[in-house]
Amino acid sequence: MASHHKSTSMQSKAYEFIKRKITMCEYAPNQLLSEAVLQEELGFSRTPVREAIGRLEQEGLLKVLPKRGIVVSGFTFSDISMIFEVRRLIEPYALRHYGSRLDLAEVKRYSEIFHAHMSSNECTEFYHLDDQFHALLISVLENDYLLELYSRIQTQNTRLRVMSGQFIDSRMRRTMAEHAEIADACLESNWERAAIAMTKHLQYSEESSLATLLKSRGNTSIF
Question: Looking at CB atoms within 10 Å, which of 28, 67, 71, 127 has the fewest?
Answer without folding.
Answer: 67
